[in-house]
Design brief:
Shape: globular
Family: Belongs to the peptidase S26 family.
Organism: Phocaeicola sartorii
Order of helices and strands: EEEEEEEHEE
Strand order of the largest sheet: 8-7-2-1-9
Pfam families: Peptidase_S26
Keywords: Hydrolase, Protease
Subcellular location: Membrane
Number of domains: 1
CATH architecture: Ribbon
Number of strands: 9
Strand content: 25-35%
CATH class: Mainly Beta
Length: 140
């Protein structure tokens, strides 16, 4: 699952970094903090430090019933066979319980993608946050 940098469809001035979870043509479902793509559970590498909050979801607006962060979908991701540039993607942050992602801002159009992350230079352990996890002490 690639990590991408893209422009927020709701605020084009804001760049976000998220992991692609669903590709064009996939059907995404979330049940009790497990993500299913086309009916199969995916290996989720999300940080488990923050718990999933069972909050109401804004996307899609035409959904039937009540969708939440823990009970989402099924959601088909549209696929345009004729023109790949018209496809969209479903993205989620690795901090699933606290992430401005496709559950709130919708599909990410191909044209909004600025690039792919190829290397992670710094990523604190799931149990630690900030520079303290690198052994760096703050000056007091």
């Amino acid at each position: 699952m690639d990590i991408i940098v893209f422009r927020n469809p709701l605020d084009r001035n804001q760049l976000l970094t998220k992991r692609i979870i669903g590709l064009p043509g996939d059907t995404l479902t979330i049940r009790r903090d497990k993500i299913y793509i086309n009916g199969k559970v995916i290996k989720d590498i999300a940080r488990k430090k923050m718990t999933w909050v069972n909050a109401e979801i804004g996307f899609p607006t035409d959904k039937k019933g009540k969708w939440t962060t823990l009970n989402y979908g099924p959601l088909p991701i549209p696929k345009n066979e004729a023109d790949e540039r018209k496809n969209c993607y479903f993205v989620m942050g690795d901090e699933r319980g606290n992430s401005l992602d496709s559950r709130y801002i919708g599909f990410i159009p191909y044209q909004s993608i600025e690039g792919r992350i190829s290397h992670v230079l710094y990523s604190p352990k799931a149990s630690d946050y900030g520079v303290e996890s690198l052994g760096v002490k703050r000056i007091q």
